TrEMBL record:
It comes from Paracraurococcus ruber. This is Uncharacterized protein.
């Protein structure tokens, strides 16, 4: 039974490690941290796959926001990890042309909708998801950059740090 649940959870995490980790029975912060090295360790793996890149952006935004504000995690997380995640978020937003002060939840939802639209073959819906003040360069530019995602070194560093930090916290319990 546990193997089946684990398989379901891992399959779900390949598409969106933030949404319903382990089919809704797991902690989405843990799921996002667990998959950070895979999805954010070398963001150039998403070159040519803007849907996957959008999910990775969503994941980074989620981790940076949740680990800083979630009452379960924020008091325990090493401040260096939070600083590294903030630097990664700044790097990612700079590359994509996302407004530096954009509300993380706006970015998370926009990236999630864009990823779904791209997987379903609807560029128009993806562009609609990425329009608005959080994306001042325009949706077409964000989509082009998602499709040409390079390796982002600060993001890679944050991916390893957040996974190691969750492992450290789990060992303390």
């Amino acid at each position: 039974m546990l193997g089946g649940l684990l398989g379901l959870g891992l399959a779900g995490c390949e598409t969106d490690p933030v949404a319903d980790y382990l089919d809704g029975i797991g902690d989405p912060v843990r799921g996002a941290a667990l998959y950070a090295p895979r999805n954010l360790g070398d963001t150039s793996r998403w070159a040519g796959r803007p849907d996957g890149a959008a999910v990775a952006v969503e994941q980074l935004e989620f981790l940076a926001s949740e680990l800083a504000t979630n009452p379960r995690w924020a008091p325990e997380v090493n401040p260096a990890v939070l600083q590294t995640l903030q630097a990664a978020r700044t790097e990612m937003r700079g590359y994509l042309g996302i407004q530096p002060g954009a509300d993380p939840q706006v970015v998370i939802e926009a990236m999630r909708r864009a990823a779904v639209a791209l997987r379903e073959g609807s560029r128009a819906r993806a562009e609609a998801a990425l329009s608005g003040p959080a994306f001042p360069g325009g949706a077409a530019e964000v989509l082009a950059r998602l499709a040409a995602m390079p390796r982002l070194p600060r993001t890679a560093n944050a991916a390893g740090m957040v996974a190691a930090e969750l492992d450290r916290l789990d060992r303390r319990r």
